[in-house]
Amino acid sequence: MTSSPCYPTILLFPKVPRLYKHSPTGFYSDQLHRWTKSRTKHGTKKSHPIACSTGYGRILRHHLNTGNLDEAKELYIEKMTRPSSAGVVLESKMVDAFMKSGRVDDAFWVFDQMTERNVVTWTSMISGCCRNPRFLHTAVNLFVEMISIGVHLNDFACNAALGVGSSLRNLQFGEQIHSLILRLGFDCYVRTACCLIGFYVKCGSFDAAELVFDRMVEPDLVAYTTMITGLCNEGRFDEAVGMFGRLMMVDDIRPNEHTLGSVLKSCELEVGKQIHGYMIKSKDFSDGDVFAGTALLELYSRNNMIENAKLIFSKLAVKNVVTWTSMIACYHRNNNSDAAVSVFLQMLDSEVNPNEFTFAVVIAACGSHSNLTTVATQILTLIIKLDLFTSDEKNRISNAFLATFSRSGEIESMEKIFSRITSPDTVSWTSMISGYSQNNLDADAVSLFRRMIEKDQTSLIASDYALSAVLSSSANVTSLTQGRHLHCLALKIGSSRHVCVGNALINMYTKSGSINAAIDIFRDMSSHDLTSWNSLIHGYASLGMGMEALRTFDQMHPTVPDESTFVSVLFACAHMSESEALNRFDSMRTVYSIEPGPIHYTCLVDAIGRAGKLEEAMEIIQRMPFDPDLLIWKSLLGSCKLHGNIELGKVVAGKVSELAPMDSAGYVLLSNMHKQRGEWEEADEARKVMDRRYVRKVAAQSWIEIGNVIHGFLAGDRSHRRSPDIYRTLKQLSIGIKDDR
């Protein structure tokens, strides 16, 4: 008689799994623990004589169901040494479990060990690869191999393949799957039809999505919600609301919170209020539903109904990271940075971890906070402490810091943040370049752009905004050579026809006086927005080509002009006739319903003043619906000097000095007017008053480009390291000019 085995076999408790079904933490778990312990009793894991493959399968299934994947893998490896197999069903379940837990390598390892694979196995592999962006193309290869070896497809396999096509946004691949679905007759399944709709929506092929939807005998809620969400994501809001209306007319289907949430994110306020009313009347919904409640919060937030948003927020029983972020964004959108930061702190107290989008919003809100640097530093410290984010997420947060510091003019803080980014992405480079450009540090913007090109050519290809920002800086330093190089670069990478780059090129060429080049750019652009028209009109006006500016304005239709357009139009009229200026000024109200602002009145006064009608210009100032500012008085003072009206000039100069006592313009213009009349004592007195008040005239600034290096200098500037050489050469040139005379 043989002795009993050293280790108990599964045959000793064959009925345990049935007990376990009703007691997840009961008898079976205890027995399983004793069995596992017995395997390591002597310090080594000896081969266990699994006498019953059914019992082995039950234990393996238990490990998979409870998430003990390491134990499952160990048991599977041990079983591989035995002649019996785990079975295709259980092995497929292992593949699926490993894929769902993100252990792709283990899933492939099990897949490779399998002697038999069915459609479920292949579908699990394809679905698992679809969840991981790195394996999307592998999923395509698996599906192709699956078909080539003759595996009989089912609708689940086709649905998984459509998911891969959606993730890749590969319309051609998905259309081939659609053909396969039609041939196999799976298109009659509601689930497959919904997958087809989702695929076409994600690929932007709404005509095909609508065709599939319309061919469904009875579209279900998933089909409607997929269509509505897709239309919303593509900005086709009216069509999304229309689809929602169709859903509401179906008797036996009612929207769920995801349907309502999608349409609330896209609809107008009045429609949103009606949906909110429907939610209140319906017993199926409440303001406490997270998804729909958050969408309601966003609806009221973007319509500046902050009290309604606060009420919805207070009623939400569960607040997730999206809800908190939406409330912070609500306060930020309504320029209440203190409240935004306060809600952020409440979020931290509630132990909800912020994500990169939360930080991006709260950082943006800090831009208008009274203590920006301190608050931003504390948030940065928190981000480092939490250590929650990947490198890409950290980049997004850093980019939000860059944008905030740029808007607030905190250049030093902006540079510190940028220096900490180990691998700047396209947005990082663009934010820095735009920050320099917006804060008039044009030479720094151009220099950084060159650094970007040297480090990463692909960053340039991905960013039209970086190119447009540096073009603006090149225009500001009037570097035509640099601008032409950038234009060539735009042509090379195919960005010259893009609107933002084209607008920047027009601006650059007009500022450099190359109006013909600007016109060519305008004509070559694939489309024109309001900025395109404004840039060209302003270019004509700034070069004294008033008639061309007005002709371009008259060609704008159907583009509707804005306040900036009329600034350029009225500026163009200053070089023509005062009657044209008055007519265009009046048309702002009568034709375009635009209320003129201070800058428009300044342009009108300038046009009338240049025509010599100084008293009429003064009357316009006195009739304005707001107090005249410094700019309009300076404009009239310039006209007084132009026409030698010393009496009115003294009055206007007094107004300038009253508004800006440290501004040199009033004193200098008045002194020059006296000089024109030969009143030297009065001219000297105006200068003496200026000196007694310690007013200094701002030195003129200019740039010169030598050897692709831009040098800036002021009048009388001696800060350059080669100033002695410069002034020595200047003296020699001056002597040469005098000798030539």
Automatic annotation (TrEMBL):
Residue ranges that the Swiss-Prot or TrEMBL entry lists as coiled coil: none
Gene Ontology MF annotations: RNA binding
Protein's UniProt keywords contain Disulfide bond: no
Ranges of the PPR repeats in the UniProt entry: 118-153, 220-255, 320-354, 425-459, 529-559
GO biological process: RNA modification
Keywords from the named record: Repeat
PROSITE patterns (UniProt xref): PPR
Gene Ontology cellular component terms for the protein in this record: mitochondrion
Official protein name in the record: Pentatricopeptide repeat protein 78
Source organism: Zostera marina
